[in-house]
Design a protein that fits this description.
mainly beta, SH3 type barrels, Immunoglobulin-like, 20-stranded mixed sheet, 4 helices, 29 strands, elongated
Length: about 550
């Protein structure tokens, strides 16, 4: 026996880690949270984000404190995002590292309570039909919550909520492993034990963001002649579709198109909170049949309209709002407090770091103003294209020119910051205040790029352009073809127009007294059209791909 006892002790030490008893440790609430939101990589420039079903994702980093016993233990991180991609989770700061990680698949719910109490005692309370008072007694759960629930009471076996009387159940404790919040757990081992600060980092599905721009022309610049200053304000709209909030978080936004091959929505597999559905009686019967709703009953009449608001004699305006707002209160409102995001390079992407901490609320949307530039220099530019395959005699009606809002993304123009894609709304001043002029889409613009936003077709500038020879055009010939354009400007001020002459590399162009440049793949010249006038320009063109 003196030999047997040491051998048994050594055998115990050789047991695998899974066979040893693990201590269960709950990590503290996060002391620091960082949320980095990535835009939906499949969303087009002209497509708004889906607020009801966001398809972007976020990288969440939580700093927590754990107190570990010596030996093996399981650490539970309660309150992680329900869209967590478990395979992406990394835990740093543990002395023994991570041996195994798990994602709890079930949340605390009525059905989970019943299933966890199978074979155990609960308290059932129901009304006594004779006395009208509530009576409670102990019962044992004998079935799972998969369509019906059977309890064993002093009276025998009974189906719950099948008597037609009010009934309720209460549980003395929550079954082990159930939590009202999503839980992520890791197995680790600590040789000595102690208190450690650890960081849990993971990807989560169900986030998205987009930028919205509001550009307001400064007063007295609506004649469109030359450059004019713009006030540019930009908002970041964030969406969190998860049921968890991330309060007082450090917020980062990633702009640009990221290549994503993984299906984060499928990998996230949110935990379930199963309801308790109890079925006792069938609906209808084979003899009487199921009741059929009467669809011939007319709908109830609509409610009467609300009375019209009264108008005081001294009020010279009508305000269509829920309440009346005095003009002086509106004009003295405080300006928007703008948080200027700090821009950083992240490979070919751009990272915007919001300096102030923000609350990313559960199932919510948040807006953060991050660009506020008072004097952005911009100008209007009109654009028209010519087609060498068209004959001027076949064009009866001039074509409206396209109107562009043009600037350059550099500091001397009042910008010099990367502009994420989003929607832009342009307002022009008028005698009655700012008026909506146009809405357009903005792609991603890096610093130093020319920014050109199409505002739609002009109602004042037109072009009629084609070749002048009435013969079949041969694009393989060395012969020069004469082109002509008629440009009309009905504005009371001169305008600049960019004329697209043909694709670069496909055409040789000779335009008298004008330098031909290449812009966005087109060979172009920029012309000035005087106010209230029609001008004509001629040039020659031939194919550059001829034999």
């Amino acid at each position: 026996m003196r030999i047997l006892i040491p051998l048994l002790a050594l055998t115990g030490l050789a047991l695998p880690l899974s066979a040893q008893e693990r201590g269960l440790v709950d990590a503290s609430e996060p002391s620091d949270i960082s949320v980095t939101i990535y835009r939906d990589p499949d969303r087009r420039t002209d497509q708004e984000m889906n607020r009801d079903n966001p398809r972007g994702f976020a990288m969440i980093s939580e700093t927590r404190t754990v107190t570990l016993p010596a030996g093996a233990s399981t650490i539970r991180f309660e309150g992680v995002a329900e869209g967590m991609v478990g395979v992406s989770a990394i835990v740093t700061g543990l002395p023994g590292g991570t041996i195994e990680k798990n994602r709890n698949a079930e949340l605390l719910s009525p059905a989970a309570l019943v299933n966890g109490a199978l074979g155990n005692r609960v308290t059932i309370t129901r009304m006594n039909p004779a006395t009208g008072t509530e009576e409670s007694e102990q019962a044992i759960v004998r079935t799972q919550a998969n369509g019906g629930l059977v309890l064993q009471t002093s009276q025998g076996f009974e189906a719950v909520r099948c008597s037609g009387l009010p009934e309720s159940m209460s549980f003395s404790h929550i079954p082990a492993g159930l939590s009202a919040k999503p839980v992520f757990s890791v197995d680790t081992i600590s040789p000595e034990g102690g208190t450690y600060e650890v960081t849990l980092t993971y990807l989560s599905w169900g986030f998205d963001w987009q930028a919205n721009y509001v550009a307001t022309m400064r007063g007295g610049v609506s004649d469109g002649e030359g450059e004019f200053p713009l006030h540019l304000l930009s908002w970041l709209t964030l969406v969190n579709d998860n049921g968890q909030s991330f309060d007082d978080a450090r917020l980062q936004i990633i702009a640009g198109r990221l290549n994503v091959d993984s299906d984060f929505q499928r990998l996230s597999d949110p935990p379930r909170a199963a309801p308790l559905r109890l079925t006792c009686y069938p609906f209808g019967s084979t003899a009487a049949g199921s009741p059929v709703p009467n669809y011939n009953v007319p709908p109830p009449p609509p409610p009467p309209p609300p009375p019209a608001p009264m108008m005081s004699a001294g009020d010279d305006r009508i305000i269509v709002t829920a309440s009346r707002v005095r003009r002086e209160v509106y004009e003295s409102a405080s300006p928007v407090a703008v948080i200027t995001a700090e821009e950083e390079d992240l490979g070919d992407l751009k990272l915007f770091r919001v300096p102030d901490r923000v609350d990313v609320s559960a199932n919510g949307m948040k807006q953060v103003a991050f660009i506020n530039e008072e004097d952005v220099e911009a100008r209007y530019l009109y654009q028209a294209a010519c087609d060498a395959y068209e004959w001027i005699g076949d064009i009866d009606t001039p074509v409206a020119a396209h109107m562009l809002l043009v600037t350059k993304n550099e500091e001397r123009k009042g910008l010099g910051i990367a502009l994420p894609q989003g929607a832009l709304t342009l307002f022009e001043p008028s005698g009655r205040g700012p008026m909506l002029a146009a809405t357009t889409e903005l792609r991603d613009y890096a610093r130093g790029q020319d920014v050109e936003l199409e505002l739609g077709q002009s109602a004042q500038v037109f072009a009629r352009c084609a070749r002048t020879e009435d013969e079949r055009f041969d694009d393989e010939s060395r012969k020069w073809t004469n082109m002509r354009v008629e440009l009309t400007n009905a504005n009371p001020h001169p305008v600049k127009l960019r004329l697209q002459l043909g694709w670069g590399g496909e055409w040789d162009v000779r335009f008298p007294r004008k330098r031909v440049e290449v812009k966005n793949g087109w060979q172009v010249v920029e012309l000035e059209i005087p106010a209230n006038s029609t001008g004509e320009y001629r040039w020659r063109i031939r194919s550059a791909t001829r034999n």
